[in-house]
Design goal:
alpha/beta, Arc Repressor Mutant, subunit A, five-stranded mixed β-sheet, 11 helices, MBL fold metallo-hydrolase
Length: 344
């Protein structure tokens, strides 16, 4: 028989004095779990990120609070960014009287998740870049933002770059890091030099970059945000997924290198194709942690993220002048730019 008490305790860890990590499961998601953080003490606790609007996420949070000995009624919430694995339970928690902090950009989009018009707009954008119409493979999955996002409108307390929040005995500086989302916010604790990075910097996986409202050039924004974090004094990064990052500057260089290699790979894909390609076609040729011959069989939401990643890099190549885009019918196609009859 499983000891539920031991199981619930295993998801909670004190990572610094008064700072607890709560591991929140993400059902049927390749990420596995979210790292939520609870900062305790003072007049108010602060919970950083929440997990999906899903019973398993709700239970993990409740169990974590019980293990720590904290009360939700004494807790405000900070959302690093809009994605449902970080924000999904915020509307439910807000109904209990908590303040919900978020950037204005991402807060606005979170409040659109319940509106079909938003998903129609995003679906139309991805279809113009080659994504099959949702009617062709509806059974292969709905976008998790729509499935697990909050259901009620939130009256956010918006935060801005450089703003200081008091969380227990800690003072946290908001650091705007657009790229993974338009209004992504990290939190910097200057005494211990800790960075709560959300999905901006992850230890053994790379954050998904994809166009969004207010984020037309995600890779360009992301690389600038990496440079901004690199200029700060940081000893350890507490990310939104997987393990802690104990060598922040090494990891930042690894992430920069990853995107350099992605750009090189996409240039080669376009060169070998010898024809204009849409982002969906490029994504199918890119290197992923799966065999290339199963592309059309993987869930739609994973192909959505992969296509968004291809779009982010293709937009970057267009912006730097090594690729060009044309509109063929209702689909955007990319090709390498020629200078003097030579492909760049």
């Amino acid at each position: 028989m499983t000891d539920n008490r031991s199981m619930s305790k295993s998801i909670t860890e004190e990572v610094a004095d008064g700072i607890y990590q709560i591991k929140v499961p993400l059902p049927n998601n390749p990420l596995g779990s979210l790292n939520a953080y609870l900062l305790t003490g003072g007049e108010k606790n602060l919970l950083i990120d929440t997990g999906f609007f899903h019973p398993a996420c709700r239970k993990a949070l409740w169990d974590g609070f019980q293990n720590i000995g904290a009360k939700l009624s004494d807790t405000d919430i900070f959302l690093t960014h809009l994605h449902a694995d970080h924000s999904g339970l915020a509307s439910e928690l807000a109904s209990r009287g908590a303040k919900i902090y978020c950037s204005a950009l991402d807060g606005h989009i979170i409040n659109l998740f319940a509106a079909q018009e938003y998903w129609d707009e995003m679906g139309a954008l991805f279809c113009r870049h080659g994504m099959p119409d949702i009617g062709e493979d509806q059974e292969k999955g709905i976008h998790p933002g729509k499935l697990f996002g909050g259901k009620d409108r939130i009256n956010f307390v918006t935060v801005t770059d450089g703003e200081i929040l008091q969380a227990g005995k800690y003072k946290l500086q908001c650091v705007w890091t657009p790229g993974h989302s338009p209004g992504h916010m990290c939190l910097l604790e200057n005494n211990r030099k800790l960075l709560f990075s959300g999905d901006h910097i992850l230890g053994d996986i790379t954050p998904v970059l994809s166009p969004e409202r207010g984020l037309e050039r995600p890779l360009r924004s992301y690389l600038k945000s990496l440079e901004r974090i690199e200029a700060l004094e940081i000893k350890e990064i507490l990310p939104g997924h997987r393990g802690r990052v104990t060598e922040p500057y090494v990891r930042i260089e690894e992430l920069k290198k990853h995107h350099e290699l992605r750009l090189k790979e996409i240039r080669l894909i376009l060169r070998h194709a010898n024809r204009p390609m849409n982002a969906y076609e490029v994504a199918a040729k890119m290197s992923w942690r799966m065999p290339k011959d199963i592309w059309e069989k993987i869930p739609r939401q994973q192909r959505w993220f992969a296509t968004g990643e291809a779009m982010a890099h293709l937009f970057y190549l267009e912006e730097e002048g090594s690729a060009e885009v044309s509109l063929e019918g209702e689909s955007y196609k990319f090709s390498l730019k020629k200078t003097g009859g030579v492909l760049l």
